[in-house]
Amino acid sequence: RGMRLPAGVRERVAAVHGGAELPERLRLYDGWAARYEQDVAALEYRAPQLAAASLAFAFPAPPAGARLLDVACGTGLVARELHRRGFRCLDGVDGSAGMLERARSTGLYRQLRPCVLGREPLPAPAEHYDAVTVVGALGEGQVPSAAVPELLRVTKPGGFLCLTTRSNPSNLRYKAELEAALEGLERQGAWQKVLAQEVERWERATSEEESTQGTGYISGVVYVYRKCPVPPLEEG
């Protein structure tokens, strides 16, 4: 029950979530790119679907013309889900060349660029995107919570940001830090919270210690925020 994941999957997940320094971690992602989608399928990883559904739910306008930036886009799992929900103008960035190559082969992105968020700014002008997603990369040793204002910079006023993080034991310190950053930006009036949804079966746990109450799964959260000032509704 739950713990019967193939050993290789457990090892690869443990490696990228382990304590490696960034260059080494990016090499691990490069090496993982070819097997990544099989592995996350084995993990029953639901974040891409959950995030895309939450963003589509919050999004007031027809999504086809909306410009969206998929940060830490990986192989394009989030793009696939967004595309299914009508988003067509997708750009992506990722720190791993191997992942970007896979994302390119999907044909779902207009533009893909290398960027290690937290180390460098996003390759986009201010107030450029109607929506920005960061699915799966906000975690211990990955994108620092201090990088959140950079996501806001490239979002248009009234635009949406969809972020996810995990609630498993080894990510709880990071999650608390992230939520403090999210709440701080809300107090400053930088954005408004649209939703924060805790999801129990986020993905399968790779160890008994990480599993929520012995279920064999870990939980996670989807957050959707709207950048202020939110434009007034047009009269008429």
Keywords:
236 residues, alpha/beta, seven-stranded mixed β-sheet, 7 helices, 7 strands, 25% strand
Structural summary, described in words:
- With 236 residues, this protein is α/β, with parallel strands linked by helices.
- Helix content is 36%, strand content 25%.
- Strands 3-2-1-4-5-7-6 form a seven-stranded mixed beta sheet, with helices on both faces.
- β1, α4 and β2 form a beta-alpha-beta unit.
- The mean pLDDT is 93.
Task: Note the topology.
Elements: H1 7-17, H2 22-42, H3 47-58, E1 67-71, H4 77-84, E2 89-94, H5 97-106, E3 111-114, E4 129-134, H6 148-153, E5 155-166, H7 172-187, E6 191-204, E7 217-227
Protein name: Methyltransferase-like protein 27
Pfam families: Methyltransf_11
Organism: Eudyptes sclateri
Give unreliable regions as ranges.
none
In the sheet with the most strands, the strands line up as: 3-2-1-4-5-7-6
Coarse structural class: alpha/beta
Report how far apart the termini are.
58 Å
